[in-house]
Amino acid sequence: MDMKSNHNGPVLTDPPPMTLTKSRLGIHSSLYPPPGVVFSHTLFLSIPRKKPLIVNDVRSSSWLDAMKSSSPTHRKKAKESSTELASTDTDFYHSWMLKYPSALTSFEQITNYGKGKRIALFLDYDGTLSPIVDNPDNAIMSDTMRAAVRNVAKYFPTAIISGRSRDKVYDFVGLTELYYAGSHGMDILGPVRPMSNDHLNCIRSTDKQGKEVNLFQPASKFLPMIEEVFRSLVESTKDIKGANVENNKFCVSVHYRNVDEKYWTTIAQCVQKTLKDYPHLRLTHGRKVLEVRPVLDWDKVIEQQMNFYVGLSNCDDVLPIYVGDDRTDEDAFKVLREGSRGYGILVSSIPKESNAFYSLRDTSEVLEFLKSLVGWKKSSSL
Ligand SMILES: O=P(O)(O)OC[C@H]1O[C@H](O[C@H]2O[C@H](CO)[C@@H](O)[C@H](O)[C@H]2O)[C@H](O)[C@@H](O)[C@@H]1O
């Protein structure tokens, strides 16, 4: 595992991603040249390397820079929602949108590509379906958004992908007709299909309603380690006012949104100290959150997720659309972009570099986009 410093600060990375092909995604589109490579059914869980983890010293400015840039501040957010946006900010946003056009104004272009294909929707939860709030337990989804998600799922296979534990995100969304992927895709529950997902090393299980389901947990052996790390981080951060450690089953979130900025280094030091004892875990940055997760080949995890939902048969006609706001969603955007396979849509009210194709400003635009998809589907099937 290498330690790489980029403009976002230090991120512990997995081995360099293998070249992605459409056939590796297992779902092809006639929009792009045919791959000519046969999809392999191998299980992709990579074995963590024994090499000791090298973590950059948290006192280096890159850690703090990454932490500071991980989400707009309250002041910035207030300004963004104001109708009196400074004209320079507006200009900056509009020039950024030339690179990441609005998925609403480009809707016709997206649906033109989607004609004759099955659109599969992947929706992030926090910041995409529910607005970012100070307390993670209060990230409630509006009834209007729930109705829109329920509606869209009638027409397109729809999955909620979250960094949270699967149970927690299910409790927030509460729709049985969806697929749920918790812990950034390390915990997926889905229906049993004919020609099942056996090649993905799924196990049969039953859901809360007692229905038979497929369960995909590529990081199950990390469970005791994550539990241990969770307890250790709760203990080491207990005296930092505002710090909140969330157990997301196969990963742990250390929130610093409510911590005074002068203690951010202390938070980072706690995480760094813990990670030193666990070379098979890595750190990623989210929105005012440090996330500890297993070292896995993330391209493969994402690839498998997509195969899990859409299946491998008749997959040439699938167009995946992934909507998300976070740095962790970038992994999925990258897989879609590099495989020239589908569209990433970044939800952001501030300009930022992304692997997405399109953008939406906030959750209200996500709502509008979902409604538009339903409207388009209804009118096209008349
Ligand atoms: O993949 P996601 O569904 O976007 O999950 C990513 C993290 O989301 C949550 O944290 C974020 O949202 C909170 C509520 O709005 C906010 O308080 C926090 O600052 C954000 O980072 C969740 O609590 C984390 O566990 C997820 O990893």
UniProtKB/TrEMBL annotation:
It catalyses: alpha,alpha-trehalose 6-phosphate + H2O = alpha,alpha-trehalose + phosphate. It holds the Pfam family Trehalose_PPase. It comes from the Eukaryota. Its EC number is 3.1.3.12. Keywords: Hydrolase. Belongs to the trehalose phosphatase family. This is Trehalose 6-phosphate phosphatase. It comes from Rhododendron griersonianum.
